[in-house]
Amino acid sequence: GMSTLYGHNSELAVSEGQDVSKGQVIAYAGSTGNSTGPHVHFEVRISGDPVDPMGYL
Q1: CB count, 10 Å around CB of 54?
Q2: 57 lies in a domain?
Q3: Keyword set for this entry (predicted)?
């Protein structure tokens, strides 16, 4: 299956496994962890393997 990861958030607006809708706020960008400024780290994985996320933006 497909999974997504969103990192460095300052606050989460949904819970893991929760269904979400297009346009729904799921998190707020932050600067947590080893970060040099506020941003969102976004990953898409298919069957656990990372894929280019551009087609999902």
Answers
A1: 7
A2: no
A3: Signal
